[in-house]
Structures are given as structure tokens and as C-alpha cells.
Automatic annotation (TrEMBL):
InterPro entries found in the cross-reference section: Metal_Tscrpt_repr, Metal_Tscrpt_repr_sf
Family note: Belongs to the FrmR/RcnR family.
Organism: Xanthobacter oligotrophicus
Protein name: Metal-sensing transcriptional repressor
Gene3D superfamilies assigned to the protein according to its UniProt record, in alphabetical order: Metal-sensitive repressor, helix protomer
Length: 93
């Protein structure tokens, strides 16, 4: 079973953010190897975690905005409200 390319307009920005985090992570490895203070390393790790979390959040929200809408199709007002509430709560991931 072959999967089709699945691209959204946010994907280039997500890739850019992840590549930046990847470069940052390599820098952190160098910091550890150079014996930099743990506080400095922890601060930089926190920044990488935040960047990856934001990339994940963007990907999930984009998926819900596009794929869920396509799958659900036209909905009545009450069903639409449930979907909108679900999408809203994902902002707290």
C-alpha cells in the first residue's frame, strides 16, 4: 500500500522550524562535550523543546483544520459546534 504525498501550506514552515531545532540541538551536544555549565545547557534544551512542541502543535492544528474538515463534510450547526470545540481544545496540547 503506497501513501500519497500529504502536504499542507504550513509544512514548509514546520520543516524550517525543525531544521533550526536540529542545528540548535547539535550545538547543545557540542556545549555538553565542551563542558559548558549545566544551566546553559538546560536553557538551550528548553528552547529546543519549545521549538519542537510548537512544530507539533502547528502540524496537529493544521491537520484538524484541513483533514478533519474534509472527512466530516457538511455538518449541521450542533455537529459543527462539537468539531469547533474539539479543534479549539487542541490549542492546549
Amino acid at each position: 500500500m503506497t501513501q500519497q504525498a500529504h502536504l499542507h501550506e504550513t509544512h514548509p514552515e514546520i520543516v524550517k522550524r525543525l531544521k533550526r531545532a536540529d542545528g540548535h540541538l547539535k550545538g547543545i551536544i557540542e556545549m555538553i562535550e565542551a563542558g559548558r555549565p549545566c544551566l546553559d545547557v538546560a536553557q538551550q534544551l528548553h528552547a529546543v523543546e519549545k521549538a519542537i512542541a510548537q512544530a507539533k502543535r502547528t502540524l496537529i492544528q493544521d491537520h484538524l483544520d484541513h483533514c478533519l474538515e474534509d472527512a466530516a463534510g457538511p455538518l449541521g450547526r450542533e455537529q459543527r459546534r462539537s468539531i469547533d470545540e474539539f479543534k479549539e481544545i487542541t490549542k492546549y496540547l
